[in-house]
# Entry
Amino acid sequence: MTPHPTTQDLLREGRRRLPPQLTSPALDAEVLLAHVLGVPRAHLRSHDEEPRTPAERAHYRALLERRARGEPLAYILGYKDFWSLRLAVSPAVLVPRPETELLVERALAVAPREQARVADIGTGSGAIALALARERPGWQIVATELSAAALAVARRNAADLAIGTVEFLQGDGFEPLAGRRFDVLISNPPYVGDSDPVLSAPPLLFEPRVALTPGPEAMACLCAFIGAAPRHLERGGWLMLEHGALQAEAVARELVARGFAHVRSHRDLAGHERMTEARWNDALE
# Structure
């Protein structure tokens, strides 16, 4: 009778099956096996000779196959850690990325600590809005989203995290915010041109296209947001936008042309200018 494979055997198999072009195939193999077994990763090392069942091996192999095709690890696991939160994710939403935490950091830095009105435009999984709500329970936070499926994920995350202070509204861009003004407007809009080959490669191939590209013009959503934002900002309010690593200069030009002041770009941990903020100081429209 063939003996059952051990934990160590399955990890070896995982490292063989995952292609080296993945960012961290060995780590992914560990994370997936720990997920299948329902144990912390450290448990794998301390129980490396423990036999595994055929069902566990089959489940592990199925997940390895998905990861080998380039599917984001977060979709396979069903969650992604962002800020101090663990968020449920699905193919209906973008996978929250570390660079988007810059938007959270800057909003916390510029807005009044006790009370502020904040809108997160295109909230996706709710990552930005929920991170801000966790840090500033006294803030009035609104999160808008065009996709009903994405909004359902965001609402689930709010419920799972017991955060009941975020108002979720369905609609395109600023449409759900008619007549309302805020101290801070935040967005991580689509900013990849639809002819960019990166959209045809993992992991973006698996993510919702509508959240990645506005169409042929990569700057289309960014420019539209900059044009419309003053109608929803209090005098002295801040607009904060995530954008592509090479778009900071173009975004800054648009902001200045629209009448914004104090335009500043900030770099992510990789050194890329990933988000730009600006303050609205002109007369209210």
In short: Strands lie at 79-82, 85-88, 117-121, 140-145, 166-170, 182-187, 233-242, 260-267, 273-280. Residues 93-280 form a domain with the Rossmann fold fold (CATH 3.40.50.150).
